[in-house]
């Protein structure tokens, strides 16, 4: 598979990025992970880019992508999984430094890495990119910068798909629902989030597992989705389908429960 180039996963040391990198490496792909806090993935064949890689820094991204390609070969698949969660605040308390941090990493960072990698893919007439957005970008919540940044990720996914469609590069997004990563578990442990409130609006009454998001990403990177570009695929255990049922008295329980 290495003759096909490499897969680059940003935010690959933890959570959804780590699950995706491990899955793709297990399928025989040469996977390089980058992260602002780089840590190797134990018991996987993934390759850690050892230097800290900040997706929000234009100069660091341009330099880093050039060095990675010089060292490991052309990037033919990209997963933009680096991100930070939104801080929950009443609108009066939104601090603009926090707004800038979330928008800079989640939206600007996704654009910077997609542009650096995608322009080269387009020149080579071959490539696939998946951006990790969120159901938060499709709904509303008291995470003002995060929802706007993720809506922006969904938007730039369409624009980049149109930009490079004639050059053989596909660009898609996945929108995870509440996904059981260490970051989410920490939010539950701190009391900022309540597991029951995260689960009960979903049709399936549960959190999403990181591997389930990884499997959707792997499909969007593979020839199995060769006719698909510019979409945003929710992987949300039915959060979007189920969340409006509260207005009608709630979702039905399974028979016999
Ligand atoms: N877990 C969820 O419930 C959920 C739901 C919807 C969307 N998402 C999105 O999925 C993506 C991954 O989230 P996760 O839950 O796996 O979180 P996570 O914190 O486990 O992983 C995110 C990774 O990104 C890295 N990172 C942070 N800032 C960076 C930067 N500036 N440059 C490079 N790397 C950076 C972190 O070090 C970390 O390894 C994020 O974009 C997040 O918004 C998560």
What would you note in describing this structure?
Pfam families: adh_short_C2. Belongs to the short-chain dehydrogenases/reductases (SDR) family. This is Short-chain dehydrogenase. The protein is α/β, with parallel strands linked by helices and 257 residues long. The chain has one domain: 3-Layer(aba) Sandwich (Rossmann fold), CATH 3.40.50.720. Helices cover 41% and strands 14% of the residues. It is built from 8 helices and 7 strands, in the order βαββαβαβαβαααβα. Strand 1, helix 1 and strand 2 form a beta-alpha-beta unit. The longest helix is centred in the middle third of the chain and has 29 residues. The protein is globular and about 55 Å long. Bound molecules: nicotinamide-adenine-dinucleotide. Nicotinamide-adenine-dinucleotide binds next to helix 1, helix 3 and helix 5.
Features:
257 residues; alpha/beta; Rossmann fold; seven-stranded parallel β-sheet; 8 helices; 7 strands; 41% helix; globular; binds nicotinamide-adenine-dinucleotide; Short-chain dehydrogenase; Sc_DH/Rdtase_CS; oxidoreductase activity, acting on the CH-OH group of donors, NAD or NADP as acceptor; NAD(P)-bd_dom_sf; SDR_fam
């Amino acid at each position: 598979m290495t003759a096909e180039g490499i897969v680059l996963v940003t935010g690959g040391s933890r959570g959804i990025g780590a699950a995706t990198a491990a899955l793709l490496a297990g399928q025989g792909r040469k996977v390089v992970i980058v992260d602002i806090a780089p840590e190797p993935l134990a018991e996987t064949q993934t390759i850690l880019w050892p230097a800290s890689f900040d997706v929000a820094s234009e100069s660091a991204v341009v330099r880093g992508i050039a060095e990675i390609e010089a060292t490991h070969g052309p990037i033919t698949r990209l997963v933009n999984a680096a991100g930070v969660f939104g801080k929950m605040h009443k609108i009066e308390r939104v601090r603009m430094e926090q707004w800038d941090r979330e928008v800079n990493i989640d939206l600007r960072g996704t654009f910077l890495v997609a542009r650096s990698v995608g322009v080269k893919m387009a020149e080579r007439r071959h490539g696939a990119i998946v951006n990790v957005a969120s159901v938060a970008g499709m709904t509303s919540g008291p995470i003002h910068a995060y929802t706007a940044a993720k809506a922006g990720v969904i938007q730039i996914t369409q624009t980049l798909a149109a930009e490079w469609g004639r050059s053989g590069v596909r660009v898609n997004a996945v929108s995870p629902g509440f996904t059981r990563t260490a970051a989410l578990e920490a939010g539950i442990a701190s009391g900022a989030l309540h597991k029951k409130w995260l689960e009960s609006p979903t049709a399936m009454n549960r959190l999403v597992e990181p591997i389930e998001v990884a499997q959707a990403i792997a499909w969007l990177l593979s020839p199995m989705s060769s006719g698909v570009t510019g979409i945003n695929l929710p992987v949300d255990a039915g959060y979007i389908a189920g969340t409006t049922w509260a207005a009608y008295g709630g979702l039905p329980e399974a028979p016999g429960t």
